[in-house]
Amino acid sequence: MTTKTMRAKTLAMLLASLLALPGSPADAHEARVGALKIEHPYALATPPGATTGGAYLKDLFNEGKVADALVGATSPAAEQVQLHAMTMDGDVMRMRAVATIAVAPGRHVAMAPGGGYHLMFIGLKKPWAVGDEVPVTLQFEHAGRVDVMLHVEERGAMSMAHQKGMTMQ
Ligand SMILES: [Cu+2]
Question: 83, 98 in Cβ contact below 8 A?
Answer without folding.
Answer: yes
